[in-house]
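In this supplementary section we document a worked example of the pipeline. Step one takes a protein sequence of length 387 as its only input; no multiple sequence alignment statistics are reported here. Step two produces a three-dimensional model, which step three serialises into structure tokens for compact storage. The input and output of this example are shown verbatim.
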Amino acid sequence: LAEAYVMDDCGAIGALYNDNYGWFSTLNACQYSGEFCEMEVRACWSDGYEKLGDILNRSRYYMASSAQSNSYYRWCFYERNLVGDPETPCLTKRGDGGTVVITYPTDGSTVTDPITVTTSTTGCIDTVEFYVDGVLMCTDTSAPFECYFDPCALKEDENMTISVIGYCSGVEEATHSVTVYVDCVEPPSITITYPTNGSTVTGPITVTTSTAGCIDTVEFYVDGVLMCTDTTDPFECYFDPCALKEDENMTISVIGYCSGVEEATHSVTVYVDCVEPYYVTITNPTNGSTVSGTVTCTADSNCTSVKWYINGVFRYEDTTAPFQYSWDTTQEAEDQQSTVTAEGIVSGSVEDTDSVTVTVDNEGECLGTALLSLLVLFGAAGIYRRR
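The serialised model returned by step three reads:
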């Protein structure tokens, strides 16, 4: 049969066959002769042998030890023969198993932070393993085959070898490697952390910053004018925006230096709104003083009106500055303390309050007047004390 197949006009020019039906086991049909067939396929597809003679010899090489110790394998060893030219190549051209090439990073480049290793593949590549200095880092089974990792977590200021192995149906088909230099020194940067961009400032502020890398000096500018220079981390600048402008935008900028060399900048724009807070302050009478008769209570305020209270009882509201109230102290308890309270009012709401406590003493004033009148009367009548 083999000879007829080889000699036929349209037949093969070489064939591997058993001399008879071959040997097998009732428990395993592929045992014995079938194992020689498997080794021939292995020699062809895994080992790369193209010629039929080489394939046959390679399969016998794999099965030699079994043939030495087992008569069934020995019969198979001699029964398996080649009909035709042993130099005959396989009729089916071996397909390209595929290639894998690292496209990023490139060989000899420098990496400074986490990277994604990318590859380009051809042919039958269905799995790619990624190694870093021989240690498995990733296994990807879907194209495009990639691997994300952080070189800086593994080494610094050293070379690193990144390798890939491409597989087709579990068989290693191709490899590729690149060597990169790991340099993970953090680049200098500076960021204004307060105030934030677009915010509103209403009074004195401390501009704060966050820095990274080599930053040893920071200059603070307001609308292009140098405001502060700080050489100590954390770098800050205190100033009063309200002393510079009102109801306008203001640009705050910082420049970070390392050993005198400008390394990084950052800017924010804020709105300056410095309306003075509402207040009211009683200027008369003073706290702790003694009052009598009619007292003109006065208050300093930027509110639209001031309400006056005596001992918590509303007495008067003045809507025009200077804010005053004429207080008749004779209506209050004698020789007792009274509390004068002023409320600053804007649009009907109390914005600020102030209070003072005074002592009312009207009888003391009347007694002094009576004694003076008696002295005048006695003098006019010629009444004097005998010495």
